[in-house]
Amino acid sequence: MAAELFKKILGDKLAKVHVLSAGVGTIVGMRASEYTLKVLQKDGIDAIDHRSTPVTKKLLEESDLVIVMERFHKHRILEIAPHVKDKVYLLREFQKAPDEIIEPEILDPIGRPLEVYERSVDLIKEGLKDLFSWIKKEGWI
In sequence order, what E strands does the chain have? Predict the structure, then answer.
């Protein structure tokens, strides 16, 4: 969800930034869940053609920035490629006042009710707006 939402936020700046979704516990080629498709459709995003990609050491090494939702994801990435630690962040770390965030993780809603997906999307959008501002400030776009 985050990758698709970020592509939308980037808009015409997408040509300058490559956004890729990859998972630490996924199987190649899995489709997006019904609820994922439903919540993304509310934002005008059609993800019917999305297929999952597992995280690989090569992918991590080639990335300038790796954004994760949960501490578990960060932990797994650092098991795969410990040397990328300086470019792996929780999405909510980019929020304007990260010290005020009570819960810095956005938990994976898989298998949960639609309302959990909707709440996850809201948190992701908040974090992505701040990530966009940070990327802009850093001169990446």
Answer: 66-68, 88-90
